[in-house]
């Protein structure tokens, strides 16, 4: 069956890394005999320039007609002074809301081969393999009012942290379901010693945990979680938290993987249409120079194969190919301390394609002798 994939490259390095994911998916399609139909759409700054809005209706329609969405990244200094509704990031927030992408999954794994560039050393990275489940369509980023205001003649400002009980419940259920397929531990992160929203969050977490007696639940305050991710990262299995806490903690945790350029993500909806994107932004400082690490985007495509199409073997093949390339010593610039020993984006993509071909050839030989 043909799988229709909406491709939204966006801005900056988004375009460079998305092409890498498409190349890898074509390679997978070739070896495993799947047909992927790639349809391109505009989002972010480029959409503002061409259509006057960061999320054109055609793009939204394209996504809704597709089986999955792959997104690069949006944003850049060109649009930084635009009014709020004409900021590229607004396109991102809108697509999350419009497609009801309420659960953002960010797997964090330490790669022993990248220890030389990591600020963490040796045994600290051993066994680090956890999943951050971030609520994506509520909290401070969407609550109203969010505006500059005036209080007794003095300039003031307000943002609103708003959640409905059912929104908290569904993200916690997602976390518990995922934990069931892993090491069966959920760490629910909140600020229940201060925030009313966190008190309800904690209450709901207890209720949901009651339905998953096989999964251990622990609560952790967000400030402690920020410390524990650095102090003892291998204690975690699944971390679940609200939108802004998850945004901050996952960038912090990215350093355990070696670089922001290594971190994939999946954003899941309840209706089966999911979106996949790297955690990083459009990196205007390196855009167009062939310096972008395409691995986060490529691993996001692997997540798409796993979560949207249930192609477990194919997803595993991509992850294995990435591992082989890193073990062979090939690095993009963000992954090396040696200023002249790195491969450009396109070559990294080629290396991963070649590793896929090699692994596939070995699998075939083994099949012949089986
Ligand atoms: N999901 C998204 O589209 C998203 C997320 C974050 C930021 N942004 C936008 O991106 C723009 C830049 O934001 P920022 O600089 O804070 O964050 P960023 O993630 O774009 O970059 C942070 C740093 O990491 C480096 N980096 C990021 N991805 C990399 C990769 N794949 N390979 C190598 N190096 C990489 C960059 O060069 C930069 O030094 C802003 O307009 C911001 O709003 C978009």
From TrEMBL:
User: In this UniProt entry, which residues are annotated as the site Important for catalysis?
Assistant: 141, 191
Coarse class of the primary localization is: cytoplasm
In terms of PROSITE patterns, this protein maps to: IDH_IMDH (PS00470)
Instruction: Drop me one GO molecular function for this one.
Output: 3-isopropylmalate dehydrogenase activity
Segments forming domain Isopropylmalate dehydrogenase-like: 4-352
> Record-annotated residues binding NAD(+)?
76-89, 281-293
Location comes to: Cytoplasm
User: Cofactors per UniProt?
Assistant: Mn(2+); Mg(2+)
- The residues that the entry says bind Mg(2+) are 223, 247, 251
SMART domains from the xrefs? Iso_dh
Give the family this protein belongs to, as stated in its UniProt record. Belongs to the isocitrate and isopropylmalate dehydrogenases family. LeuB type 1 subfamily.
State how it assembles. Homodimer.
Q: Which HAMAP family match?
A: LeuB_type1
Protein name per Swiss-Prot or TrEMBL: 3-isopropylmalate dehydrogenase
The top of its lineage is: Bacteria, Bacillati, Bacillota, Bacilli, Bacillales
Question: Which gene is the coding source of this polypeptide chain?
Answer: leuB
């Amino acid at each position: 069956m043909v799988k229709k994939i909406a491709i939204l490259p966006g801005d900056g390095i988004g375009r460079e890394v998305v092409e890498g994911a498409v190349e890898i998916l074509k390679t997978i399609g070739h070896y495993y005999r799947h047909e992927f139909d790639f349809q391109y759409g505009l989002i972010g700054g480029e959409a503002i320039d061409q259509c006057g809005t960061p999320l054109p209706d055609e793009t939204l329609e394209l996504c809704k007609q597709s089986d999955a969405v792959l997104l690069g990244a949006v944003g850049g200094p060109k649009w930084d002074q635009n009014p709020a509704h004409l900021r590229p990031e607004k396109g991102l927030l809108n697509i999350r809301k419009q497609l009801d992408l309420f659960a953002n999954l960010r797997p964090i794994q330490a790669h022993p081969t990248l220890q030389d560039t990591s600020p963490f050393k040796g045994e600290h990275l051993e066994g680090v393999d956890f999943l951050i489940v971030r609520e994506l369509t509520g909290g401070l980023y969407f609550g109203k009012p969010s505006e500059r205001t005036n209080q007794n003649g003095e300039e003031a400002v307000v943002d609103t942290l708003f959640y409905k009980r059912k929104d908290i419940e569904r993200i916690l259920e997602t976390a518990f379901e995922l934990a069931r397929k892993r090491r069966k531990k959920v760490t629910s992160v909140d600020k229940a010693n201060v925030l009313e929203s966190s008190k309800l969050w904690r209450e709901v977490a207890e209720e949901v945990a009651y339905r998953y007696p096989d999964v251990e639940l622990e609560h952790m305050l967000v400030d402690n979680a920020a410390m524990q991710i650095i102090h003892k990262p291998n204690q975690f299995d699944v971390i679940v938290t609200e939108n802004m806490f998850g945004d901050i903690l996952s960038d912090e945790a990215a350093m355990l993987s070696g670089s922001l350029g290594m971190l994939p993500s999946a954003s899941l909806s309840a209706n089966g249409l999911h979106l996949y994107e790297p955690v990083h932004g459009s990196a205007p400082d390196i855009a167009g120079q062939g310096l972008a690490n395409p691995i986060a985007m490529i691993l996001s495509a692997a997540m798409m194969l796993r979560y949207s199409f249930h192609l477990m073997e194919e997803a595993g093949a991509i992850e294995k190919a990435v591992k082989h390339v890193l073990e062979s010593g090939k690095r993009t610039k963000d992954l090396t301390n040696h200023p002249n020993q790195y491969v450009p984006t396109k070559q990294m993509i080629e290396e991963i394609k070649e590793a896929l071909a090699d692994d596939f050839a070995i699998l075939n030989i083994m099949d012949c002798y089986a």
